[in-house]
Amino acid sequence: MKYKMDSGELDKRLKQFIPYLSNQVQYAQRVLGSQRIQPITQSNWYQPREIVLGNPADQPAFLPLTDQFPLSGQGWQAIDQYLLKHQTRAFLVLWKGQLVHQFYHQFKPHYQFNSMSMLKTLVALMVGIAIDQGLIADVHVKAAEFLPEWQHDQRREISIEHLLSMQSGLKSDVKVDAKTWVLPIIPLYLGDEIERTALALPAVAPPGRYFEYNNYNTQLLGIILQRASGLSAAQFLSKYVWQPLHCHSGFLWLDKPNGQARTFGAFFAQAEDWLRVGQLFVNRGRFQGQQIVSEQWLDEMQVPRNTPARGVMDGRADYGYQLWLKAHDYGLIRGIPWYEATHATTAFADDELFYFEGLRGQCLFIHPRHDLVVLRMGERPKKDWDMSWMINQLCQALP
């Protein structure tokens, strides 16, 4: 006997299918659109968004340029030419709190750019502030305290520290799912239900066993911050970092109108404002007399977490709390696929250097002892790019 669908049930099925089809069309448009843009400089593509309010007057002064750094004009020219060859759009050097060099190409100081995963380190700063404020007890708190969706499976053992140090044991976001044939990073980057997507990612190993760079870890930290504070990611960032630093307003990319921010990457701000963030590490968390983040937290961020001494297999001692501590070949790091590799053919000349890093060569280098903060942003460098060459030239010029 054949089943015959009555008109009421047919109407119900159609009502369910049409939104699904619309979502799939929107998803396909995002996928295709993302392949046509220059993702660092074309900020208008990233919609919808939530504003991260900066200075209340929204008119922070741009830094005056001085000529105090002990590097010859020929030395600066060699660095600028190298960066120009590698599609750099902005290169800024802050030394002893003074802007001593700036280089812009097809970009202007008031433009906003996509920081990509530099946002991850900013999220770690925000976690530290949440601990300072008593919103989170400490890094050893289980994530399931804020994510009750995890309380009934093995993910209940994952701590906030495991997420910060990329040791959660969650399923890789860059390996094709055998059931759906989709890279898990795609719905996180382009989907419109990223909270549900992030909370559904399963664990494949106990936490603390190995380091694997995974964008879901930072997205989950963003969800925890929102649940702990009652603020959206943009509101938290504005209240505790961006306004206190007198930055210009920026924006976070949302999955849908009034939705969830993509806290694993894609914060748009002006280049100079990142120098203010870097200077926090030099000034031990203070800005104009205000303690924005504790000294203790900044120190904790810089402790290598992926080491054999901590029981981490294949430890490299190059990662703290969402912070890179050594120059390296990204193609050799678990969780970063070869096609996104950003190479360093030589080590840093000084072991005290550390940095924020975003896809396609977005880097904020910090050397507290030298009172040095350096930003490089731009599109994808060429294959012979050496991310450590430029910063080594600057460090070697200093006494």
From TrEMBL:
Residues 90-382 form the Beta-lactamase-related domain. It comes from Alkanindiges hydrocarboniclasticus. PANTHER family: BETA-LACTAMASE-RELATED (PTHR43283), BETA-LACTAMASE-RELATED DOMAIN-CONTAINING PROTEIN (PTHR43283:SF7). InterPro entries: Beta-lactam-related (IPR001466), Beta-lactam/transpept-like (IPR012338), Diverse_Enzym_Activities (IPR050789). This is Beta-lactamase-related domain-containing protein.
